[in-house]
Amino acid sequence: MPPDRQPKQRRSAISDDIKRQICEWAEANKNEKHHEIAQHFNEKNLNVKIDRSTVSKILKEKDKWKVVVSAEVSTKTF
C-alpha cells in the first residue's frame, strides 16, 4: 500500500500592498528573522500563506516594493 501523501500546497498571489507592508515591517523590526516575519503576516492575513522563503524573495527586492503605492492585486505568484 502506498504511503499517504499530503496534498500539495497551492500557490497564492500576494498583493503588492502586502509585499510593501512586509518590507516596511521588516525594516521597522530589524531583529526579526524571516520565519518570524512570515508568521506575523500569516496571523495578520489569514487568506494568504506566506513562507519564510517568500519573505526572503520579497526582501531581496525591497527597493521595488517600497515604492509601490497602488493596492491592486498582483498577478505574480511565488
From TrEMBL:
Entry superkingdom: Eukaryota
InterPro entries linked: Homeodomain-like_sf, HTH_ABP1_N
ARS-binding protein 1 N-terminal domain location: 10-62
Signal peptide segment: none
Protein name: 7076_t:CDS:1
